[in-house]
Amino acid sequence: MNLFVFGLGFSARRFAEMQRARFTAVRASVTEADRAAALAAQTGFTLRVFGPDGADPAIPADLADTDALLVSVPPDAEGDPVLRAYRAAIAGSRIRWIGYLSTIGVYGDQGGAWIDETAPATPGSPRTKVRRAVEEAWQALGTETGKAVQVFRLAGIYGPGRNPIVKLREGRSQRIVKPGQVFNRIHIDDIAQVLAASIARPRPGAVYNVADDEPAPPQVVTEHAAALAGLPLPPEVDFATADLSPMARSFYGENKRVRNRLIRAELGVDLAFPTYREGLAALKDAE
User: Fold this and answer.
1) For residue 122, what are the domain limits?
2) What is the value of pTM for the model shown?
């Protein structure tokens, strides 16, 4: 089985590296030539360039020789760049499993309520509205071609090198307090095992929430990380006066508790890190 990954970023790279033994060939794209060369040397994968400045002419032949396709490229203002460039090539290929990495942000604000995959997608920002439209475009491709397209709605991603302990050590952490606010999270190793389980049990049109068991206030997670690593806590900052980017602030405008029942019931996944406590403890030990 051959794998192609559009967008070999944090989560997609972890999946490809953890599951490399199941693939005969792993090919992937990044946006810059120098990064492609560096990642090829680090991973042993075949790297292609695909981005605003152009695309490697070998990609159509790669797609024709692909069985599983993972799409981790974010949308742009016009939609999905992968579908714009390669819809026909993908439709005419032998690819039988397609995974699209999306976000739980497509559910919009749910006022802190518990939701699962049966909840309607009601995105509230321009960014998540485009993301939802791209989900639908990939699902439409699956319906038209008979290929198994699965959408994975990811919670806040963390893992080695990208987690609250690292932020505390680097002095980049803020203990932002907004009463009633909670977020789900997900460790990249659990994303990888969900994707692997889906390849083993494809279901055309499936949508999966990939999230942990315990949505929690962000300041509580920061406090736990500091205690675990023996690091000083940054002072509390009220959300209303916090120095946040527009995108970061938009995340706080949505509040929901996301259930992950379907990945357990349908894919048989048992999360390695069901809450931030197990995930942060493992990361501290590894570092």
Assistant:
1) 2-158+185-214+256-273
2) 0.97
